Amino acid sequence: MIINLPVAYIIASIFGLISKKLFMPIMIAAYWGTNVLGFFLMHHSLKNIIYNEAKDKKSVLKIILISFTYTILILVLAKTGFLKFPFDYFK
């Protein structure tokens, strides 16, 4: 969340300049995209250190659940007005 959320916010802000309607869908897509990239990088770097198939499946399910929870948190923050398009903060 420390890396993915700010990166997703920056990417969504850029697309939000085109249309504010793009901000939330792009933010969610970018957040999930950074998660997938992070999963790939973690798997690639750790596959030679730890490889236990049963444990790996549990880890993937846990990571997906955490990502889903953070996605819900992003939606709640956006719907309550706490998280919004950057230029709207200056109005």
Query: Can you count the helices?
Result: 3
Please, what is the average pLDDT?
79
Task: Please state the overall shape, judged from the principal axes of the Cα atoms.
Answer: elongated
Secondary structure tally: strands: 0
Q: State the low-pLDDT regions, or none.
A: none
Q: What summary fits the major beta sheet?
A: none
Rg calc: 16 Å
The SSE order reads HHH
Task: Assess the beta-strand content as a share of residues.
Answer: under 5%
End-to-end C-alpha gap: 27 Å
Number of domains: 1
Helix content: over 70%
By secondary-structure content and strand pairing, the structural class works out as mainly alpha
A few lines on this structure:
By secondary structure, the protein is mostly helical.
What features would you describe in this structure?
- The protein has three helices and no strands.
- By secondary structure, the chain is mainly alpha-helical.
- It has one domain (4-86).
- Helix 1 (4-16) runs antiparallel to helix 2 and helix 2 (23-46) runs antiparallel to helix 3.
Keywords for this entry:
single chain; 91 residues; 70% helix
Topology of this protein?
Layout: H1 4-16, H2 23-46, H3 53-79
